Amino acid sequence: MKVKNSVVAAENLDESASFYTDVLGMEEVRRFSPVKGLTIAFFKGEGEATIELVEGEKGKKGLYMVGVEVEDMAEEIAKLKAKGVELTRGHIGPPGGPKVAFLEGPDGVEIELIQP
Questions:
Q1: Which of 16, 71, 105, 116 lies 20 to 30 angstroms, CA to CA, from 3?
Q2: Is residue 84 classed as helix, strand or coil in its secondary structure?
Q3: Domain range holding 13?
Q4: pLDDT digits (tens, 9 = 90+) for 94-115
Q5: Which one, of 55, 53, 77, lies nearest residue 65 by Cα?
Q6: CA dist., res. 114 & res. 95, Å (int)
Q7: How far apart are alpha carbons 84 and 79 in whole angstroms?
Q8: What angle do CA 92, 71, 75 make, to 5 degrees?
Q9: What is the C-alpha to C-alpha distance for residues 43 and 71, in angstroms, rounded to an integer?
Q10: Which of 113, 86, 109, 93 has the alpha carbon at shortest distance from 101?
Q11: 65 is a domain residue
Q12: Is 21 inside a domain boundary?
């Protein structure tokens, strides 16, 4: 598995964005609001992984999701189930898009499996 992204819930997206760009030197590559009251900004440094800041996720603060890329979703899910792991959510997103599934890690951090 390859780490694809980390998602951080931000109380103030603009203040957090300034830290990632001005202090860490990352580039903000995209910002959008998929639904009213929720804004997501993507930041990229060196390498392929991104950090996503999310403002508007009620009850969440700090790191709450890590995305990992898998080659074969069905095979990965079978391996996880054999180890007693249950998925918390299945595919979301547009038809024909990447396959996505979610499970909860031991510290409450959600793990997002992504098959491009």
A1: 16
A2: coil
A3: 6-59
A4: 778 888 999 988 778 899 999 9
A5: 53
A6: 14
A7: 9
A8: 80
A9: 24
A10: 113
A11: no
A12: yes
* 12 within domain boundaries: yes
Residue type (1 letter), 89? R
- pTM of this structure: 0.78
- Beta-strand pair 50-55/2-10: parallel
Other beta carbons less than 10 A from residue 20's beta carbon: 20
pLDDT tens-digit profile of 6-54? 999 998 999 999 999 998 899 999 999 998 999 999 999 888 899 999 9
49 burial (CB, 10 Å; 0-12 / 13-18 / 19+) is middle
Examine the domain organization and report whether 50 and 23 are in the same domain: yes
Please provide the DSSP assignment of 14-81 as one string: HHHHHIIIIIT--EEEEEEEEETTEEEEEEE-SSS-EEEEEE--TT--EEEEEEEE-S-HHHHHHHHH
Question: Does residue 102 lie within any of the structural domains?
Answer: yes
Whole-angstrom distance, CA of residue 38 vs CA of residue 112:
19
Mean pLDDT over 78-95 rounds to 84
